[in-house]
Design goal:
- It is a single chain.
- By secondary structure, the protein is mainly alpha-helical.
- It has one domain.
- The chain has 16 helices and no strands.
- Helix 2 packs parallel to helix 5.
- 56% of the residues are buried.
């Protein structure tokens, strides 16, 4: 029996609906990690550090897809809740069209300016060419990457989260097979890894595009539309928190890399790369859950069903906190075997990575709560509060922590920075929730 956005959601139904999006995001993260795994083991530490150095910039451009997807899907879900299906399809089609155009523009700019950007990010002479080759190759496929990010949220809104999972699995298998071929069999290094990623993004972006282009059994399909600047601004404004998370997270990653080059050299950047790959996978569980719950919240908000919105909020906060505790324990226990997979060939680097893992693991306790609270306000159409939570949690609190704590605790201060930022972020999230509980009858 299929689950509809209009249903009442208990814990079981909520987890069933979100399971596909959770698995989808975890799988996306895993195949995103594959590049680093192959490069680290087949090309060495310097190329591995190089792709980690340029990855924040690549994620900023891809973040525009998340912004359009989350902000647009919230707008479409609210419109569906209001019973305006034709208007919802027009909004959906317009956002996808805008994603394609903006993706092409950003792709061109990224390819043209990759070298000065790599220098600006702090690439050493040994890392520079690896940065440029990887960055330009991946960014040539940026339009497909943005479409993939946009469709991930819209597939849940269309009540087709399982299709989103199938698309992600197809893209992930493609990436893993091509990484094996281009990096392990044919030693193409960072170019091979980047090419594998780009082709897999085409798979993840084009399959749902073709699905929505034809008549289908979901709530949405691509149709004729007229460009409406105000609607695009509403979608981008509402999804600005996701773009803010991407930009600020990437800026913070750059600060981490600057600090690590200063305190530990290229090995420090490599350690941070391993931690980020693991964080991608763990945090993907929380992101997948928010992708699944956002259209439910938006639909019931549009239908003026505050009781259901309030119930989903309470259940979600409990699940996020419980999940955070489990993630912390898992990260602490698996720190050594995970580090051995990436850098087991280098004993000093392995020791540094394990030590960082044990400190870093505490950050997961409140990560899910903060991610959900930002998504919750996006789903309600309140992009300003959502963006404020993301901005303060990432850009302000993490930047402050990663610049100040190393002055007090040395290299370990860099690993403590995220935990401190998550605590401060949780405080801000609760302040915004209390301040807005009357407005949304929470």
């Amino acid at each position: 029996m299929s689950i509809r956005l209009s249903d009442h959601f208990n814990y079981r139904r909520l987890l069933r609906f979100c399971l596909s999006t959770i698995i989808m995001m975890v799988f996306t993260s895993i195949y995103g990690v594959v590049d680093g795994l192959f490069i680290s083991n087949y090309a060495g530490t310097v190329p591995f550090a190089a792709i980690n150095l340029v990855m924040p910039f690549i994620m900023i451009l891809g973040g525009f897809g998340f912004m359009l997807g989350t902000g647009g899907s919230a707008l479409v879900a609210i419109t569906l809740g209001e019973g305006e299906h034709d208007r919802a399809n027009r909004y959906f089609s317009m956002i996808i069209g805008f994603t394609v155009v903006s993706g092409m523009v950003l792709s061109l700019l990224g390819v043209l300016f990759m070298r000065p950007i790599a220098v600006l990010l702090g690439a050493t002479d040994a890392m520079l060419e690896h940065c440029v080759i990887y960055g330009r190759t991946v960014l040539a496929f940026n339009t497909a990457f943005m479409l993939q990010n946009t469709f991930q949220t819209f597939l849940a809104t269309a009540e087709k989260p399982k299709l989103g999972l199938l698309c992600t699995v197809a893209a992930g298998v493609t990436n893993i097979l091509l990484d094996t071929l281009f990096v392990a069999v044919f030693p193409l290094g960072v170019f091979g890894a980047a090419l594998a990623t780009g082709i897999s993004q085409c798979v993840g972006g084009l399959i749902p595009f073709l699905y929505f282009l034809r008549p289908n059994k979901s709530l949405l399909r691509l149709t004729k539309f007229r460009f409406e600047g105000k609607t695009i601004l509403r979608a981008t404004g509402n999804g600005s928190s996701e773009l803010m998370s991407s930009i600020s997270g990437s800026v913070v990653s750059m600060l981490y890399n600057f600090q690590l080059l200063k305190f530990a050299g290229e090995n420090g950047v490599a350690v941070y790369g391993v931690l980020m790959y693991v964080q991608f996978i763990f945090v993907a569980v929380f992101i997948g859950y928010t992708i699944g719950t956002a259209p439910i919240i938006g639909y019931h908000y549009g239908a003026d069903n505050s009781t259901e919105v309030r119930g989903i909020l309470k259940k979600s906060l409990f699940l996020m906190l419980l999940g955070g505790l489990l993630m912390m324990l898992l990260a602490f226990l698996l720190g050594t075997p995970i580090a051995e997979i990436f850098v087991g060939y280098n004993k000093p680097l392995l020791k540094m990575t394990v030590a960082a893992f044990h400190i870093f693991s505490f950050s997961f306790i409140l990560t899910g709560v903060n991610i959900f609270m930002s998504s919750f306000f996006t789903a309600l159409g309140n992009g300003a509060v959502s963006a404020a939570i993301s901005f303060l949690r990432t850009l302000v609190f993490q930047s402050f922590s990663v610049m100040v704590l190393p002055l007090l605790f040395g290299l370990n201060g860099i690993w403590y920075a995220l935990s401190v930022a998550e605590v401060l972020g949780a405080v801000i999230s609760m302040i915004f929730l209390i301040a807005n509980h009357k407005k949304y009858n929470l």
